[in-house]
Amino acid sequence: MSKKFLGYIILSVFALISICASLNALTFDGVKSAQGDKLQSALESSFQSQQQDNPSASIEIPELTDADFEKEVLQYKGAVLLDFWFEGCVPCRIILPKVKELAAKYKDQLKFFKYNISKQKDLVAKYNLEKYPTILIIKDGQVVAKEVGCSSDFKDHVEAGILKAIK
Description:
By secondary structure, the chain is α+β, with helices and mostly antiparallel strands. 51% of the residues lie in helices and 16% in strands. A four-stranded mixed β-sheet has the order 2-1-3-4, sandwiched between helices. The radius of gyration is 16 Å and the shape is globular.
């Protein structure tokens, strides 16, 4: 069995766990059983392997703070993608490589930021966010697209929002 195929299988298991975690309010970091520890280790290993095989994995998306929001987003004349996430959010980890691919593809056409809701809350209240991950695309201070969760067509939906924003 090839390393890449095994990675896809493990990523599929990762997705199933995220669905269960979402349904049961269980977080990836909250899995405490011996099997859970082994599974977490295997999933982390697969995630790192997938990251190494992906050239866009080296793209770093800067962290946005509440203090920088006005300047970096609202006053910016153009489009900005905000990725709302938190530690222990399995779906957030699943979409990160896809967001990085989009950042690599559209880096010259819009800004990309991550917003860790565990460290700051102002934007969560401002945009009434309840589920994660959430992607907001803001142009000239106005939300033009929103994607919640990590559906199989997540990347296509976000890219459609990006194309709408950069026209």
